[in-house]
Amino acid sequence: LSAMGEPSMDPTMSAADSTAQQDSLFSMTDVFLISLITGLFTYWFFFRKKKEEVPELPKMQSIVAPVRDSSFIEKMKKTGRNIVVFYGSQTGTAEEFANRLAKDAHRYGLRGMAADPEEYDLSDLSRLSEIDKSLAVFCMATYGEGDPTDNAQDFYDWLQEADADLSGLRFAVFGLGNKTYEHFNAMGKYVDKRLEELGAQRIFELGLGDDDGNLEEDFITWREQFWPAVCEHFGVEATGEESSIRQYELVVHTDVNMNKVYTGEMGRLKSYENQKPPFDAKNPFLAQVTENRKLNEGGERHLMHLELDISNSKIRYESGDHVAVYPANDSSLVNQIGEILGTDLDTVMSLNNLDEESNKKHPFPCPTSYRTALTYYLDITNPPRTNVLYELAQYASDAGEQERLRKMASSAAEGKALYLSWVVEARRNILAILQDMPSLRPPIDHLCELLPRLQARYYSIASSSKVHPNSIHICAVTVEYETKTGRLNKGVATNWLKSKVPAQNGSSSLVPMYVRKSQFRLPFKPSTPVIMIGPGTGIAPFIGFIQERAWLKQQGKEVGETVLYYGCRREHEDYLYREELARFQKEGVLTQLNVAFSRDQAEKVYVQHLLKKNKENVWKLVNEGMAHIYVCGDARNMARDVQNTFYEIVSEFGNMSQPQAVDYVKKLMTKGRYSLDVWS
C-alpha cells in the first residue's frame, strides 16, 4: 500500500501525538475563519459607515442650499420679519423706496425686509399667510414703453402665467412712473390688478408716483396714509420711535492688501484689469474711445459724437438698442466734500450690513476708499431725498439748521413746500447743502451709507452693427445749467464723456459699458416703408437705421421708402450729421429728408409742423404702404405733439372721429408699427 505512494499513518504513533496534531489543525482553521470573518466584518463596517455619511457631505449641502435660499418665506421666519417689500427698479429709486418702507416697519412694532424679486421664488407668495401679521408691499417702476424693469421681468412673466391661489396674501403697491410716457405706471397698475385677480387682499390703495412732477412728494404722501392703514388692519400702534437707525457699520482698514480693494469695479474685484465676457450691468466692458468729435458748428451747447471700440468683447447689438455707460463724478466735487467734512478721502474702509442675514452685505463694493465711493459708486449731484435730510439733521449743531432739515423731511404741507423750493427747484445737491448749512457736518461714513448709488446712463446707439460690428456710436449733448442759487451744475455722464479724448493706450479714454436690448426695431421686411421722427439727439437711432437700410440695399435687397423728419434750432448751428444725411439722400437710401429749423424764422417750426405739411404723403405711407413709425427724443412735448398730429392726419384722411383716430394709432402701437424711444 505504501508503495502506492501516500505514506500511511505510523501504527506506532501514540494517541497523545495524534490528539496534539488534531488540536494544531483546528487552531489553524479557527485562525483562518476568524481572520476571514473579521475581514468581512471590517469591510462591511466601513462600507456601511460610508453610506451613512453620504448625506453629510458638503457636496449635498451645496445642492440643497440654493433652493432654501430662494425662499423669502423661510428667510422671513428665520429672521423674524413679517413685512417684505419687493422692488422692481431700473435706476435705483424703487429700491431706495423699498428700503425706506422696510426701515419704517420698526416704528410699528413690525419688522421689514426689502427684497429683489430676481433673487427669490415669487410663487411662495401663497405661503406668506403662514407668518403672523404678514404683508407684501411692491414698489414697482415702469421702464420704457410700459415694460417691467430688468429685475422684475421674471416676476411679471410669473404673474401672467400664474393660476396660484393668493387668497391669504395681504398686499399694497406703489408704482413709479412718468406721466409724459404713453403707458404711465403700467407695471404698478398691472401688479395691483393681477394680485387682486389671484385672490390677494389689498390693504391700501395703489400709489402712483410721477417722476415728471415730484416723485418724492408722491411717495411721502402715499406713505403717510399707508402706515395708518397697516396699523388699523393689524391692530398695532406706532411706537413713537423716530430714531435714526444705522443699517451699516464702519470698519476702517489700516493694514490692507491693496489688491483686495475695489477701485471702481461694479461687480467682480479686478474685473477691469482681467476682463471676462459676458458683459452686463454687473460686469461692464471697458471700451476705448476711438473718436470724440463736436457735431455742432456754433451755439452755446456742445453736441458730440463718440465711438466706442468693442473689438474682442463678444458684445452684439442691433440698431435701436441702448448702450449703458457708467460715469464718474467730477473730482473737484469729490474733493470739496472731503475738505468740508475734514476727511482723508484715501482712507480704506468697508460698510458692513448689521443684518447678517441680508443678501446685501455692503451698500457698494467694499473694501474701498471714500474717494472711490464718492467718485464711482455714489450719486452726489442729484438733490437728496427727504429721508437723507432727516437722517443728516442730527449732525447739524445749529438748532435752526437742524429744525429746517427736519421740517423739509416732514409730511407737513409747509415742510413739503420748503423741500420743493429749497432743494428740488434750487437743484441743491449734497455739496450745496453742506455749503449752505455750515453747522451740518455728518460723519462721512454715514453720508456714504445714505447717498443713493450712481446709476448707469443710457444712450440710443447711433450706429448699425451690420456696418460697424466692432464699434458702438453715441450722440449726446452736454448738460450744463445755472441754478437759482447761481451755481453751475453739470450733467455727470455727458461732461465725463466730453473729457474722453482718444489716446494712445491711455486709460483716460476708457468707458465702462454694456448693451441693453430694446424693442425699437426696424421692420422684419426691408421693403416696408419707415417714417422716422427724431429732432435733436433723437436722431441717434435713425443714423443706425439708415446705415442698415443702406447696407441692405448694397446686399441687393429691396428697401422700402426711408423717410426722416429731423429738427434742430438753426441750420448753420446744430444741424447734426448734415454730411452723412446728404450722402444717404444722394445715394437714394434716404428717400425723404425733412428738416425743421425752429429758430431760423420768426415763427418756430417743429417736426410736427412738417408732418402736417406732408400729411397726404404720411397717410399714404401709413395706410397703403403699411409703414412703421418711429419717434425718438423728448417725451414731454415733442412725442406728445407728434402723436396728436398723427391723430389729426388719421382723422382727416381716414374719415374717422377723434376717438376712432386715437384707437387707430393705439392699434398701430400694439402691432409694433408705432414705436417710441423717448426720455423726459
From TrEMBL:
Instruction: Drop me one GO molecular function for this one.
Output: FMN binding
Known InterPro entries for this protein?
Answer: CysJ-like_FAD-binding, FAD-bd_FR_type, Flavdoxin-like, Flavodoxin/NO_synth, Flavoprot_Pyr_Nucl_cyt_Rdtase, Flavoprotein-like_sf, FNR_nucleotide-bd, NADPH_Cyt_P450_Rdtase_alpha
Name the Gene Ontology biological process terms: response to hormone
Q: Which residues cross the membrane?
A: 25-46
Listed under GO cellular component are:
cytosol
Cite the Gene3D superfamilies for this sequence: 3.40.50.360, NADPH-cytochrome p450 Reductase, Chain A, domain 3, Nucleotide-binding domain of ferredoxin-NADP reductase (FNR) module, Translation factors
Q: What is this protein called?
A: NADPH--hemoprotein reductase
Which organism encodes this protein?
Answer: Hypocryptadius cinnamomeus
Lineage from the top down? Eukaryota, Metazoa, Chordata, Craniata, Vertebrata
Query: What gene does the UniProt entry assign to this protein?
Result: Por
